[in-house]
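Lab notes, practical 5.
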Amino acid sequence: MITIAIADDHKLMSEGIASILQSDPDLVVNKICTNGKELIEYLKINPVDLVLIDLNMPVLNGPEAIRILRNNRVSAKIVVLSMYADETIYAKCRELDINGYLHKDSDAQHLIDAIKAISAGENRFDYDRPANNMSVTRDPLFEDKFVNKFKLSQREQEIIQLIRSGHTNQEIADILFLSIHTVMTHRKNILHKLAVRNTAEMLSLLTGA
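Output from the prediction step:
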């Protein structure tokens, strides 16, 4: 029997995932948490075999919760379950020493099979295989023209790409494991370097590349 805790602030999503997992007799969902803090408090006295965790949550987001769990040497396998298909996010999550990264639009059997494989000692990352919804953030034209011309730092490049993908300041902060103040400072510096007044002008400049 594989015991599981889920952390996701979207109740319908987490309950749906729990229902899918518990359709398999080898899987049992012991707890559904709505944020990272609740998950950490639960795991202090209720160990499980595997944790499924979303990235964007209130109170304590996924990346910060994962950091704390790893620092506390929690034995559970940690798997990010996210809607994001973005290589910047993948790379940042890999830095957290997670055991898997699964897409929320995966079919039920893929999710069940992946969790069983991870519990058995494998690592499973959906972005290591071709996916129809894969969103690649690298843009050779952007890199060649804008990075060199405007002397953009690596962090500024990451933030620009996430802005282009439609992410909010808070989402960018969560994805890159930064404070929202730091993200806003970077955005201000980017506007200054590009000599534009606002995000709309920045996106217009990029679109016209």
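Observations recorded by the TA: Residues 142 and 209 are 7 Å apart (CA to CA). The radius of gyration is 19 Å.
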